[in-house]
Amino acid sequence: MTTFKYLLVAASIILLPEAAIAQGAQLNEANTGWILTATALVLLMTLPGLSMFYAGLVRSKNVLSVFMQCFAVACLMSLLWFAVGYSLAFTEGNAVIGDFSKVFMAGVGRDTLSGDIPESLFMAFQMTFAVITPALIVGGFAERMRFSAMLLFSAAWLLLVYAPVTHWVWGGGWLGSMGLYDFAGGTVVHITAGVAALTAAVVMGSRKGFPDSAMMPHNLSMTIAGAGLLWVGWFGFNGGSALAANGDAAMALLVTHISAACGSLMWMVMEWIKYGKPSVLGIVTGMVAGLGTITPASGFVGPAGAMVIGLLAGFICYNATVFIKRTLKIDDSLDVFPVHGVGGVLGTLLVGIFASTELGIFSGYGFADGITGMGSQLAVQAIGAISVLVYTAIVTFVILKIVDAILGLRVTADEEIEGLDLVLHDERGYDL
């Protein structure tokens, strides 16, 4: 009997590594359930969240064109991501780009895992990021780009900008290897979208009448409804990036909410001081600034750090908006760069500060487990932000010029006056 016990113990020791490996490869149903939910939440951000947010901000003659662009981008980017984008972003490849080993999801079956969730689910979650990022750029050239040019530009941009940058940061590329902290897309989503929108606004030129004629939002009620959907959907965006139903996801959700609230209130106060009245447009724009700025930091900072990040987002992004529109007179139609681009850069840099272990109540939390070399991490964050900014600007400029040569980027002056709804889609948003 004693000999049998010894043999049993010995066999357990020998088989333990294999058992552990098998256990680690098993599907985690709790994590899978949360990422299924988060995937739906992130898609909600684009359809209908961003669509309504943007559509309400344009003039009534262009409302359907914005809806059409957002819906078409969601469809086209989904197919491109399935066909080749996912493979370029998340396969081994090299330090710059992935390979073609998972084109059309080759080798990925129902039971194939990425960590402890189905790889098909991981691919779908990342697909929603690939959908919303080009959709954000729509705000930079709203009310003046041809629909065909928008489709060609968005497709090329996904493959030449978004997929490589995703690989750099999350797919085993050089920025991830360097130690860049970007939890949910400060560089991958917000810097790329913001810089691309600014580049498009500069290349295409201003809308007819800008900046002398007022171009007021035609339906702020629609914008507010879209903003609410964005806020709720962002919990999936940031909380889902933990890829697990755990404390990191919960903390990411909490700091996301705090930053959004602080960004909203700061923007509101800034307008109140300057104009004597707070605006609804201001408070929802401040919300987006707070959300975009916390995104890269959401898995690495605590609530106190998120409060400071949100307040800084509201203050800095507000002033950036005024500077871009009134000083530089660049017609980034829906303020994509000052809110998302500036917010993405700011948030990426602030991770290097508030993920530190040296700040008491403001110290970091989460996957980073705090960092001790604040200066060295800040340098890595700056390299990441600058490299993504420069790469995006150059490649976006080239894509725009090529698309312009092939199709022409912009509608004619008469077509712009008539409105894109009728000119491009032969429909009206309102028939009252």
Describe, in plain words, how this protein is organized in 3D:
Helix 9 (247-275) packs antiparallel against helix 10. The termini are far apart. It is built from 15 helices and two strands. By secondary structure, the protein is mostly helical. Strands 1-2 form a two-stranded antiparallel sheet. The protein has helices at 2-24, 29-57, 63-90, 119-137, 147-170, 174-178, 186-204, 220-239, 247-275, 280-294, 303-327, 336-354, 374-406, 413-418, 420-425, and strands spanning 113-114, 117-118. The chain is globular and about 60 Å long.
Summary tags:
432 residues; mainly alpha; Ammonium transporter fold; two-stranded antiparallel ribbon; 15 helices; 2 strands; 69% helix; disordered N terminus
CATH class: Mainly Alpha
Order of helices and strands: HHHEEHHHHHHHHHHHH
- How much helical structure, as a percent, in the residues? 55-70%
Q: How many E-type strands?
A: 2
The CATH topology comes to: Ammonium transporter fold
Structural class: mainly alpha
Biggest pleated-sheet summary = 2 strands, antiparallel
Q: Tell me the name of the CATH homologous superfamily.
A: Ammonium transporter AmtB like domains
Walk across the major sheet and give the strand order.
1-2
**Residue-averaged pLDDT, rounded?**
92
Tell me which oligomeric state these chains represent.
single chain
Distance between the termini: 90 Å
Query: Helical segment tally?
Result: 15
Low-confidence stretches: 1-23
In total, the number of domains comes to 1
Percent strand equals under 5%
